[in-house]
Amino acid sequence: MNSTVKEYTYYPGCSVRTTAKHYEESLLRVFDALGLKLYELEDWNCCGATLCSSVSRLTSYALSARNLSRAERQGRDLVAPCSACYLALNKTKDYLAHDEEVRQKVGRALAAVGLKYTGGVRVRHPLEVIITDVGLEEIKKRVKRPLEGFKVASYYGCQTTRPYKEFDDPFYPETLDKLMAALGAEVVDWSLKTRCCGGSVTGLVEEVGLRLNYILLNEAHKRGANVIATTCPLCQFNLDCYQSKIIKRYDLGFSVPVVFFTQLLGLALGMSEKELGFARVMVPMQPLLRSLIGGEPIRA
């Protein structure tokens, strides 16, 4: 990796400022340690994903287009950690590029507030930035605490690699597996790494959501995983926060911690449990965390 600091515009989105604070906490520290400088997008707004897009797709596009327009002014690649935001921004770019009606209507909406978008922003996921702009070999050199004993099931969810396969295979992605292996973890081979967790359905029709998440947890456990690493705030929320209900409903005799990939990367780079937001995880990581330094908890 070139020693020059690489700079990006950072779009937090709503989730990492609320239910996924531990994602942002770990992301910012990891990027800083790797020489990746983030500048928060000025006056950003909700991307319009999920519920908004189901009510009005055009409104959703206009919301994302406003963020793209403001990012274009800042002149850097736009990093979006949330899978829903990442998809919404890329989908908006696609429609603005290929749908004349959408381009004209959204263009008029932007012009009404003194903005315009010409298509000049590249939207990137943090995982792709780390793999591409830092590289696995450089990551290996920086590992201070190999994740020995960690059996990781890499879980992307359904929005990071589909339908826009910007940096990985849409059905069987492997970049997260390669990153976990570079950190010294044992990577679990499983087929559900892009299967949907139910998203917001879990909060609306709980029985359906619990069943979908049970399938994921059960399969990860059957494959020998002792931790799930994810790239998506909503996936992490569903699998972690609803896990106690899933255990009770399906009479499971196990639990599986579910964390963000940036938290595991930070651990391997030598950062503390506190810095990386592990206190915010519902299913405890303590047994695995203690194993890293010979039986003692990792502290700041």
Structure commentary:
The protein is an alpha/beta fold. Helix content is 47%, strand content 9%. The protein has 14 helices and eight strands. It has helices at 21-33, 51-55, 57-74, 83-98, 100-111, 126-134, 136-142, 175-182, 201-204, 206-222, 233-241, 243-249, 261-268, 286-292, and strands spanning 6-10, 36-40, 78-79, 123-124, 151-155, 186-187, 227-230, 258-260. The strands form two sheets. Strands 2-1-3-4 form a four-stranded parallel beta sheet. The protein has a four-stranded parallel beta sheet with strand order 6-5-7-8, with helices on both faces. Strand 5 (151-155), helix 8 (175-182) and strand 6 (186-187) form a beta-alpha-beta unit. It is globular, with a radius of gyration of 19 Å. The relative contact order is 0.14. The model has no long low-confidence stretch (mean pLDDT 93).
List its traits.
4-stranded parallel β-sheet; globular; 8 strands; single chain; 300 residues; 14 helices; alpha/beta
